[in-house]
Amino acid sequence: MKKSLVTLVLAGVLSLVGVSEAFAANQYEYKSLTNNQSGVTNWVQGQHAYGRWTLQVTSGTVNANLYESCPGYPAFIYMEGLTVTAANGSSAEKSSDYYMSGNCLYQVEVYKDNNKAVSSKIHIRNYK
Asked: Within 10 Å of residue 103's Cβ, how many Cβ atoms?
C-alpha cells in the first residue's frame, strides 16, 4: 500500500514537470534606447511556435539583430536582422515573425554604432 502511494505521488510530480516544460508561458520583453545607445532585451523562452520581434524608430536609422541560444550550441547565434529608417520628425517600425523552438531562448540587440535615431524601442515576444 505504502509503495503504491509513493509510486502514484512520484508519477503525478513527474507528469507536472513534463507539462510545465511543454507549455511555456507567453513572454514579452522590450528596451527603450536613445542616440548611439546599445541595448538588449531580456531572453524569452521559445514555445515551438512563431513569435514576433519589432523595431520602432523616431527620426533616424537603427539596425537590430535577433539572437538564439540553444542547449549544446555556442552562447548565441545570429538569426536575422532588421533596419528601420524614419524621416526627420516622423516614426517608423518593422516587425518580423520568427519560429521559436521550445528548448531555445531568444533576444534582440542593438549596437550603439547601429543606432542613429533620436529614440528607438526593441520588442520581442514568444507569441504572435
From this structure: 12
25: which DSSP letter? P
CA of 89: how far to CAs of 23, 59, 99, in Å? Answer: 43, 5, 34
Residue pair 31/75 in contact (Cβ under 8 Å)? The answer is no
Please measure the distance between the N-terminal and C-terminal CA atoms of the chain and give it in whole angstroms.
49
Predicted structure pTM score: 0.79
pLDDT by position in tens, the chain (length 128): 554 543 444 444 334 434 444 567 999 999 999 888 889 999 999 999 999 999 999 888 899 999 999 999 878 999 999 999 998 888 999 999 999 999 999 999 998 777 888 889 999 999 99
Alpha helices in 23-100 (DSSP H): none
